[in-house]
Amino acid sequence: MKKKTVFILLGQSNATGHASPMSEEDRIKSPLKNVYGLQRCDNQSFDIDKLTWSNYLGAGTNLAETQDDTYSLANCLAKLWQKEIDCGAILPDLYIVQIAIGAEGVTEKYMWYPEREKKLVPGVLGTVDISLYPFTNHIFSLLDESLGDDYEIMGIHWRGGEEETDVRVVHLEKVLRGIYDRMFDGFYKSLGHKVPIVLHKMASETRCREMNVTGEDVEAMHFINKTFDELAKENENITTFDVTKAPHYNITTRTNGIFLPDGGHYTPETNKWVARTILDEYKRKV
């Protein structure tokens, strides 16, 4: 077992934990002993030539959008990982990289688009403006020097795609696969090798299909999920994650047991279940 493992969370609102603020008692206000993160104040720049790791806190650790103390997957995994170690589990120190901005997809008009002009304006949703692809590659290129030789990357978890439901399917058919291929190839180059990538499929498609809801956006969801499945089938390092497998998923309720009342963002319980599933899978492999 390596002494350090890296968990990377990229994407949009379901990677920020949008609309899901932590309760006061759940917030990570005391730095975790065995979990580390990258604070925005030290690392949100194209100009840095080294990463500054800090003992993990629930605020300030998303390198993109300013939205703190949420039940994001990153915060949920950090708390769970530290709890497992405190209870006697033999686990390496965990290093978390979180880069996400709500409502930002990968096609031409969004901040994840690979060919977007390089820029970095910090702030909250509505103000923040970061060219996420080159910024992520910059951060990735600095991992080796900051962590040394004794680390592994558990995986890049991609929670994005929802914004492409507003893009016509005929356009997605032309560009989407090529965009993801370019993005992932760039990530591999910045990291120096291929790493596991986990694509979180959009549960909204399953809900719409089961409720017989149709429309252009549902067809877009289907195409995006199909693209994720194809990427996983054709690349041995890529897998998919389906949150509708959660034990509390329930088709008979309006939010299906996994969504907040807005119908699009995951509940704290759901993100905690995903974190538990990721940790249990890691423990099975090591």
Structure overview:
By secondary structure, the protein is α/β, with parallel strands linked by helices. It has a single domain, classed as Rossmann fold. Helix content is 37%, strand content 15%. The protein has helices at residues 13-16, 40-43, 73-86, 132-141, 143-147, 169-191, 203-210, 216-234, 268-285, and strands at 4-11, 35-38, 53-55, 93-100, 120-121, 129-130, 151-159, 197-200, 238-241. A seven-stranded mixed sheet has the order 3-2-4-1-7-8-9. Strands 5-6 form a two-stranded antiparallel ribbon. A hairpin with a 7-residue loop joins strand 5 and strand 6. Helix 4 runs parallel beside helix 6 (169-191) and helix 7 (203-210) packs across helix 8. The longest helix is centred in the middle third of the chain and has 23 residues, at 169-191. It is globular, with a radius of gyration of 18 Å.
